[in-house]
Design a protein that fits this description.
Helix content: 40-55%
Strand order of the largest sheet: 1-2
Strand content: 5-15%
Radius of gyration: 20 Å
Shape: elongated
Low-confidence stretches: none
Number of domains: 1
Largest sheet: 2 strands, antiparallel
Mean pLDDT: 84
Structural class: mainly alpha
């Protein structure tokens, strides 16, 4: 079971809960806005998985053949001059673990 950070203020206990935790753990079917947020979280997770799989399968091949790619390992790439580093930056911005 997940625990949440708690604070006490003015004799009241507050837990820091994310919106994602709420929509994933509670029945929000009668709340249209939260139902849509839950759907979007799921869709976002699927897109992140798709991007990760795409990068994980294509980048080793691309980096291995690209003359400018010095590192040849896209996950460890920190070369701002590398043409493939753009994909690494975009993946990191999307929250894709590289």
């Amino acid at each position: 079971m997940k625990t949440y950070p708690m604070t006490v203020k003015d004799g009241k206990v507050y837990a820091e809960v994310t919106l994602r935790d709420v929509v994933e753990r509670c029945d929000v079917s009668d709340l249209p806005m939260l139902t849509e947020i839950k759907r979007l979280y799921g869709e976002n997770d699927k897109l992140k998985d798709f991007c990760y799989e795409l990068l994980d399968n294509l980048m080793p091949e691309i980096c291995g053949k690209a003359f400018w790619c010095r590192d040849k390992d896209w996950r460890k790439c920190e070369d701002y001059e590398c043409g493939n580093f753009t994909f690494v930056i975009l993946a990191r911005e999307l929250g894709i673990e590289v």
